[in-house]
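User: I'm new to structure prediction. If I give you an amino acid sequence, what do you actually give back? Let's try with this one:
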Amino acid sequence: MKKPESSKFSGKALLKGKKCVVTGGALGIGRQICYTFAENEAEVLILDFNVAAAEETKSLIQEAFKDSKVHVVQGDVSDRIKLKESFAEIASIFNGSIDVFVNNVGIIQPCRIEDIVSEKESNTFDKIIDVNFKGTYYCAAYAYPLLVKGIDPVLIMIGSCASVGSEGQGGYAGTKAAQRGLLGTLAKEWKATEDYQAVRVGLIEPDYLEKTAITAEKQYWIDLANARRTTVDKISDEAVARTKVPLKREARLNEISEVVMLYTLSTYLNGEAISVSGGKTMRL
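Assistant: Good question. You get back a string of structure tokens that encode the predicted 3D arrangement of the chain. For your 284 residues, that looks like this:
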């Protein structure tokens, strides 16, 4: 996988002093978000099950930005009990408060609806639900007490345009639709009161992306093609983007992290889902 890229916010120190946590920050979109935060002088914490990859991301960031502060905490978002321990460690590192929490971690695996009754597919479905759905809930619950003590705090979920449906990916699409429900719920529940400041909540929904650690795997595309009853050459992001996206290409990962920056910095932006699809999902 290629190294993270600089964003349009590079060198502006827009997050100087901010304490930012990114789940699934070891690879793919998460790695790019951590990099973009660090280049804007945020203190970054990578919460990931894959410690080796997280340490590699930490090294890449510190190599690029010599004075950057980057931490790694191991965590499994699908395990509520162990995740509580991970958040206790986060609270200790950041002295009880965080400013930005990006709930990026997620898994995407083909899962055809009519096959759910098979043992293999039901196990796949359960795993997707545990990580993408329950994990999002758990992280929100544990992050709130730290966020509410932060400065202009915000929780940002990385969703997917699959929230409106994705053939052959029923489990994944369902969890991404659930994030939309959680977005509105948290934006209302985490409102400002006499005793607590508001915690803003956002949802960013990418569509076709340049290859990540997951979608670079050949088996993923084979399984997805089987689930859609078609061939691999007809469903790759690159091929489909050229025909369905007005910009005629996939999104670069730094184009996603730039929207995360936008949501982080725009302190009156709250409860909104932003589609980053190159115009494919435009609403006219």
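You can read the tokens as a compact description of the fold. Here is one thing that stands out. Residues 119-147 form the longest helix (29 residues).
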